[in-house]
Design a protein that fits this description.
31% helix, 509 residues, GMP Synthetase, Chain A, domain 3, six-stranded mixed beta sheet, Rossmann fold, 14 helices, four-stranded mixed beta sheet, alpha/beta, globular
Length: 509
């Protein structure tokens, strides 16, 4: 056959079609266990197809946004797969945000429908949004009996967006990262190649589904034909029960969850069925705890470095051996990923020199929703500029040096100082404010505020009350230090030097 330029040779797979292929091949295999109920792949496929037909009755079509504000539950995953079938995009709303932050997230993406659980109805009611019909996520399955699967062919564009996951914004407001079917499929492949996950290895989805940890790796498992156990957040009893019943591939644990789970696991005397890999973000966990949890679970600890925008890449290719208390946390390049380290003018730096990490590859997201200036800045010269600084080691690894986009990583959540400072500076009693990170044994890092005030009625308790009404709890400063305006350390250009404030904290401790 003679082909000409531009001809499409092969059909194009999506998250839905890969899930459907496995479901048709093994309809009786366990797909999801949630809250004491189980769904086989065949039953899950039927529910997803009916739900897709139901979305169409609400006028949802290719490219439309369907927002979800809910705790982890099977319906959340079903809605994502149903949206994947019709080419819609699911905006995964962060229920930890306060109403002001959430209003921005909703208005940014203009959803046609908002599914909300009863737990968060009162939060949604505080948002004066215009677009979006609120529907109960609890009752969406009850309505499936009236929605027969239609004959519409599934969407087949792998570049079509599937998920909108929100990231903290350097300018003070969250941005919505658009992640395509192509990126999700590539992320599934990277996960399995680098972490050595095999067919049948279960995934324990406890991390909130507005994060990659809850959503992406659930979809990855369902495309791979593996079982998923969904729990309502950090439910230690349910998690320990699952660890004793399922052979798990990756047991994702963020710093704040490692020790509580370890304590409960030991206290329960649970026999671990099997774990291939445990943990993430080794930089924020003590070496002794890494050795303890890896030894308890007989699984290597994941020395990861990725992001919502890139997935597990660029540097999640290193597993810390069982029982080892590491003294070297240099990273290893992930599969399906190209990386450059460059200086301030875009030139590649020599080995041993510090440079910003630039990434290219199929796991990459498609850009920030409705943020052309941010996209122009971060996608310069055909590469995504992460804003993270690394230095290449003589052995070919990558040593994390710092963040050019200053970021606080607290209990697995990202906090950009600008979003906290924006709230503080809105108070007329605040002359200036700077938020920095401080190491913390439980959360990895916490936010600490330095404030120059012009009114002594502004106390630490008042600052907390101000932040409590406008910021998610994990973003609120855990410490407040009042200093004189001339004590704010500044560069020659007038920018506050956060590292100097960090050193001040260390001197006080």
């Amino acid at each position: 056959m003679q082909l000409t330029a531009g001809q499409l040779v092969a059909p194009r797979s999506t998250v839905y079609t890969l899930f459907r292929a496995g479901a048709r091949w093994h309809p009786d295999r366990l797909a999801i266990e949630c809250d004491g109920r189980q769904w086989s792949y065949g039953a899950l496929l039927d529910s997803v197809d009916r739900l897709a037909a139901g979305l169409r009755t609400h006028g949802v079509t290719v490219g439309d946004r369907v927002a979800v504000l809910s705790e982890n539950r099977v319906e959340y995953t079903m809605l994502q797969l149903a949206a994947a079938r019709i080419g819609a995009i699911v905006a995964c709303l962060n229920w930890r945000l306060v109403a002001e932050e959430l209003e921005h997230c909703v208005s940014l993406v203009e959803p046609k429908i908002i599914y909300v659980s009863s737990r968060f109805e009162s939060l949604l009611a505080e948002i004066p949004y215009v677009a979006g019909i609120p529907l109960s996520i609890e009752t969406c399955l009850d309505r499936l009996v009236d929605c027969a699967p239609d004959d519409e062919p599934p969407a087949d564009d792998p570049e079509q967006g599937l998920l909108l996951l929100y990231t903290s914004g350097t300018t003070g407001l969250p941005k919505a990262a658009l992640i395509s079917h192509r990126a999700e499929i590539a992320r599934m492949c990277t996960l399995r190649m680098d972490l050595k996950i095999e067919p049948g290895d279960a995934y324990l989805a406890w991390s909130p589904m507005f994060h990659m940890g809850g959503t992406e790796h659930t979809l990855s498992s369902l495309m791979f034909g593996s079982p998923v156990v969904i729990t309502d957040g950090l439910d230690l009893e349910a998690m320990v029960h699952a660890i004793g019943r399922f052979k798990l591939g990756w047991l994702l644990l963020v710093p704040a969850s490692v020790e509580p789970l370890l304590e409960r696991l030991k206290g329960a005397g649970t026999t671990v069925m099997g774990v291939r890999v445990v943990g993430c973000m080794a930089d924020l966990v003590s070496a002794a705890v890494i050795a303890d949890v890896s030894r308890t679970l007989n699984a290597p600890f994941l020395n990861s470095f990725g992001s919502t925008e890139t997935g597990l890449p660029p540097a999640t290719g290193h597993l810390i051996p069982v029982g080892e208390a590491p003294n070297d946390l240099s990273k290893r390049l992930s599969s399906l990923c190209e990386v450059r380290l460059v200086d301030a003018v875009g030139n590649d730096v020599a080995d041993g020199e510090t440079g910003e990490c630039l990434v290219r590859g199929p796991t990459l997201f498609s850009g920030y929703w409705n943020a052309p200036e941010a996209n122009d800045k971060d996608f310069r010269d055909g590469w995504f500029h992460m804003g993270d600084l690394f230095r290449r080691t003589p052995t070919g690894g990558f040593m994390f040096v710092g963040r050019s986009k200053y970021l606080i990583k607290s209990g697995g959540e990202n906090i950009y100082p600008a979003e906290v400072e924006r709230v503080l500076l809105d108070d007329p009693r605040v002359t200036d404010a700077a938020v920095v990170r401080k190491p913390d044994p439980r959360w990895g890092e916490i936010a600490v505020a330095f404030i120059a005030r012009n009114d002594d009625t502004l106390t630490a308790k008042v600052v907390d009350r101000i932040c409590r009404g406008r910021l998610a709890s994990y973003k609120r400063p855990r410490e407040v230090h009042f200093i004189h305006m001339d004590e704010m350390p500044r560069s020659a250009s007038g920018k506050i030097i956060r590292e100097a404030l960090e050193r001040r904290l260390m001197d006080k401790s």
